[in-house]
Amino acid sequence: MPQITLHPSEHEFESEPGESILAAAERVGIRLPFECKDGSCGMCAAKLVAGSVDQRRAKPFGLTPQMRAEGYVLTCVAIPQEDVVLDLPLQVPFTEARATVVAKNRQTHDTIELVLQLPPEGHFEYEAGQYAQLTIPDTPVSRAYSMAAPFREDGRLSFFIRKVPDGQMTGYIFDVLEEGMALDVCGPMGSFGLVPDSERPMLMVAGGSGMAPIQALLMALFTQNDPRPTLFYYGARTQADLYRLDWLNDMATVHSNFEFVPVLSHEPEDSGWGGRRGFVTDAVLEDQPDLTPFEAYLCGPPPMIEAAVAGFSAQGLDAERIRFDAF
After folding, report:
1. pLDDT tens digits, residue range 213-223?
2. Angle at the Cα of 303 from the Cα atoms of 302 and 308, rounded to 5 degrees
3. I need a surface site. Which of 183, 196, 222, 266 has the fewest CB within 10 A?
4. The overall pTM is greater than 0.90
5. What is the three-class DSSP state of 172?
6. Cα R_g (the chain), whole angstroms
7. What proportion of the chain, given as a percentage, has pLDDT over 90?
8. Domain boundaries of the chain, sorted by first residue
């Protein structure tokens, strides 16, 4: 069986036939960064120093062109074909704690804000845009969710969670979980976040529960009184799927450098909706013919991310200035 070596930690373990690097690491108790497990989010990227892998299941936008050229692979889908060596510094140990449910606030017909309170010994600092792994206590059922607000010193965490048909985790959260009950939390994880020390205008695009990390980024920017022009396009199916409108519109009034554009793809023609219609990426391309000056932050389903990366690159946005979180 192929042997996997991680630098600089010098961890060594073997992978079974057809087993990804991430799965092999999990099997032997080594925790590596990940989120999607389908080769789309890029969170598990590692540099291949020696050996070869098969990663045909990776999505085309899972790695930037530069990362591909430099030999990066996605450990969640990369299957070793021989002994491999990876440059993958292990993250600072995650904090694991049992949190208490403080509130479940309805946002739309299928989305809630879940508010958790960490115990004093379980507080952890994180950057806006990062996520945590939530697990049903004493079960293997676990999912990753982005924090919907920047770090708070009181240990309060909030998440936007959309109910997935037949989803084990969301079914439990929506139908079983109540205030006062517990969820296990492990974090922080992920590298999605604001580019430090940048002066470029920002383009933010989200769909569905991609609202969570974008809201956290916006809150951080507003707190810092960042003066850069910031455009936020949010894509939803219908008006019934929109949320956080009052807050976003208030922020657009208070901050003259911030513009919010909701875009609906399946709103009935006779509804009276006076806003934008169509796909959110198309709206951006129509409004912004030259994206050369921008840096972009994309959060949402993989098809939206794929369309955005292709379209925005074609209109001048350097792929190296596109950050995304696909889920």
Report:
1. 999 999 999 99
2. 95
3. 196
4. no
5. helix
6. 20
7. 81
8. 3-87, 95-189, 202-326
d(Cα 191, Cα 302) in Å, to the nearest integer?
Answer: 17
Residue 142: Cβ within 10 Å count = 14
Cis peptide leading into residue 140 (ω within 30°): no
Which tokens hold the place of 306?
């794929």
Q: For position 60, what pLDDT does the model report?
A: 76
Residues constituting the chain: 327
Q: Which pLDDT does position 92 carry in this prediction? A: 58
Residue 176 DSSP code: T
Alpha-carbon gap, residue 67 to 48, rounded angstroms: 11
Residue type at position 286: E
153: Cβ contacts below 8 Å, ≥ 6 apart = 123
Predicted confidence band at 140 (pLDDT cuts at 50, 70, 90)? confident
CATH topology of domain 95-189: Elongation Factor Tu (Ef-tu); domain 3 (2.40.30)
How far apart CA 144 and CA 92 sit, in angstroms, is 18
